[in-house]
Amino acid sequence: AQREVPTAAAEDETVHEVVVVGSGPAGYTAAIYTARANLKPVVFAGSVTAGGELMNTTEVENYPGFVEGIMGPELMANMQQQAERFGADIRYEDVVAADLEGEIKTLTLEDGSVHRARAVIVATGSAYRELGLPDEKRLSGHGVSWCATCDGFFFKEQHIAVVGGGDSAIEEATFLTKFASKVTIIHRREAFRASEIMQQRAFDDPKIEILWNSEVVGINGADKVESLVLRDTVTKETSELAVTGLFVAIGSDPRTDLVKDQLELTADGTIAVDGRSSTTSLAGVFAAGDVVDPTYRQAITAAGSGCVAAVDVEHYLAALD
Ligand code: FAD
């Protein structure tokens, strides 16, 4: 139950049991569990990006329970409604500042209003880096992807391209050879940053072709990707490469701006949590989803992680009471 602190400005002084920051699979799952545990969660869902990364995609075929798959935005609308059915209070606002030390945490919104809670779940996700091309967003889910595990299956017997030169780019390219007829890695330098062993795997793979000193400067296609415009970084000459898919693998940035000065982070830039729990370096602050995960980054792992955070919050509050 919520605790009313008796002051004149009672409404502003409400101390919520738990506030969730973020509304991707991790945030909504944490909301469903904490709502069903009668903790009356308030969810700050974000203003323009509510629903998280899956709002940017089309079919999701690997989230269990949907035999025929489900559209990303529909899956997120379902999670939102499921959380609301149990009383989660979802507010489409951005948290701009947080004070997470002490027994009562405070969160400040853009309008300056301050909200208090005994526990906070940070589920702010992680942003894949984009190339910054005008057609990249438009063709996202229509040939442009950031996740080989999610979308490789859609590209059976097709020629696709992967942009990047680090371990994750090579890993994505190697994984994609299971489906594609050919995978072209496009890298703007003349050597990879990836580890030797990963590189060798790419060099040895007959389905992988590498274009060095090349960058993608355009993506063509009316409804889906048809070709890429490449520029040679040395000669500046442009050329066209006919592919039906483009996987962008140039890294990702966990969204930690709100908390990075207060919570311990890992070398990967994710929020550090204790073992398999969601416990952060501050008591009463829990973190879940892609913001703690440099490796798996799937909707189902984020949802599982949101469940872990909710259960951790229940235990934390029960021990205090
Ligand atoms: P996110 O989904 O990133 O959600 C984070 C939330 O935090 C957002 O709602 C954002 O608005 C909010 N937020 C951030 N900062 C603040 C703040 N200060 N105040 C308030 N709110 C804030 N995974 C699959 O399993 N299957 C797929 O098919 C699949 N396809 C994908 C396709 C694309 C194009 C992309 C980009 C990803 C895909 N993924 C897929 C990966 C999946 O989307 C992520 O793993 C998952 O969404 C992570 O969930 P999350 O809850 O941790 O974070």
TrEMBL record:
First-level EC class: oxidoreductase
EC number(s) on file: 1.8.1.9
InterPro entries xrefs: FAD/NAD-bd_sf, FAD/NAD-binding_dom, Ferredoxin-NADP_redctase_2, Pyr_nucl-diS_OxRdtase_2_AS, Thioredox_Rdtase
Required co-factors: FAD
Alphabetical UniProt keywords: Disulfide bond, FAD, Flavoprotein, NADP, Oxidoreductase, Redox-active center
Chemical reaction(s) catalysed: [thioredoxin]-dithiol + NADP(+) = [thioredoxin]-disulfide + NADPH + H(+)
FAD/NAD(P)-binding domain: residues covered: 17-306
Top-level lineage group: Bacteria
Assembly and interaction partners: Homodimer.
Family membership noted in the UniProt record: Belongs to the class-II pyridine nucleotide-disulfide oxidoreductase family.
Protein name: Thioredoxin reductase
